[in-house]
Amino acid sequence: MKKLPWRYVPWLLLDMARGPLWFPAAVLAAALLLPAVNAPAELVTKVFPYVLEAAGFLSVLALTRGLVNKDLRRGYYRVLFSRPVTPGGYYLLRWLLGGAALLAFAALFTGIISWKYGVALPFPFYAARLGLEYLVLGGLVFLLSTLLREDAGPALVLCALSAYYHGAAYPPAWLKAAGWLLPPLNLCRLTVAGTGPLPALLYGACAVAAAVYVLQRRNFAEGGRGD
Amino acid sequence: MTSKPHKIPVAPPAPGAACLAELKGVCKTYTSVLGRPVPALADVTLELRGGEVVGVAGPNGAGKSTLLSILTGFLTPSSGTALVGGLPPGRYAERSGVACLPELVRLPPDWTVTAALTRLGALGALAGPARALRVAAALEELGLESQASARVGKLSKGNLQRLGIAQVLLSDSDLMVFDEPSNGLDPVWLMRFRDLVRRLRRPGRLIVVASHNLDELERLTDRVVILGRGRVERVVEHSSPAADGAPRVFRLKLLAPCAALAGVFPGAAPVEGRDNEYRLELDAAALSGGLLHLLQAGAVVLALQPEQSGLERAFSASVENTR
Q: Residue B71's closest chain A neighbor by CA?
């Protein structure tokens, strides 16, 4: 953790506020400003996890998409990484801040709904599941962002395959063989009691570690004017 | 060239300093879209010392940017060894940073000039008050005070280049790399840039400048590495006395015809279409002695200038070799 450029956190937060935080911020604004619907507390308690789950999923994508490849495509890396900073540390810190922003969003969203509808919502459970989702999906997008020019699209395809794989009684053999590559988002759901989170923890940790490893090894430039 | 107070630490050059960057048999091969190998650098071996300013020249596609990318750690060689300060360049950059002006200065367009410098200073581990001072000094040095709150995306090409140079000044690294620094600079800023490089020179610091502008390289550097098709064709030590004494072609312009000219400079050839202008090919000693005789014979010299610098000749010869 010593290698992370903590001194740069204020500017990373500023970048986040100007960019990928727009979606969670819009959800919070809507929750705060839209008038409360007339609904019994039981219904709110039942429906809210679905809303938070969907908003959380989209927020993870918004917070992590283009994390690395955008800087590479636009050539910003030359001025950023001529400073005494490791690319792996720099992007890991950005990724971690995204996770913190997601949890802050979840806390505020849950708080606003609890206050508006006067219901008690189990935030620690939501936070644990959303954190796990950020590790799994956010880690996958982070890794794809170090390898590909487009990350969110391929991640969505893998998520769709994962949903099919975990929902199908008899998934095709090729999908079974590739099952370990698919993000175990079924373990991160707020609306379904999942089994133990260990596979998801492992999957996410491996994706993040692989992303940092790739960043420390890859060539940033392509030579000539190509980059 | 300017009388402005120096904002950047000044120190004299250190001839004979230790090697800072070392390339041994460095090759870099890219792979084309069709999977074919495209060699960019082939067997490049160089020793670059701290305290010197080294130029890198070569025609388009000669491998200049690839060489600079390897030195700054953005590319790893396909084979061979590259070391900066005894470390692989990437590790060196992570530890000490590299003051680097890329060929194309790219920064997020919504950053302001001051914000860009402040951020890069922070990323470069400059602490609060020191950072503010360095940013202010860099803005003043590059004449960007009036653009301080302008967005990067709204800057002209010249101002963007000056911002690129300003961010270099935030670094104290012993390795400074300028890729095509004269891009977009007007003559005034070209001269200021030359002055700046002279002041940035210090013992232990290696400054590498890649440019297509040979005149620029001759003025700025101690020696120039000429690349051709990825190979080191020649290293021209144009600042050494031996290089200055080598035969060169000069143009001599007299006020009026001088009968003694043919005797003093037997090889003098009149320049077609120019009155009283002659081409001479000789070394510095013969030129000095001849000029003395010519002046004693009553000739009035209006101008004397080299037709082609030693670097230009070496470059032309190297490029011809690679064709």
A: A82
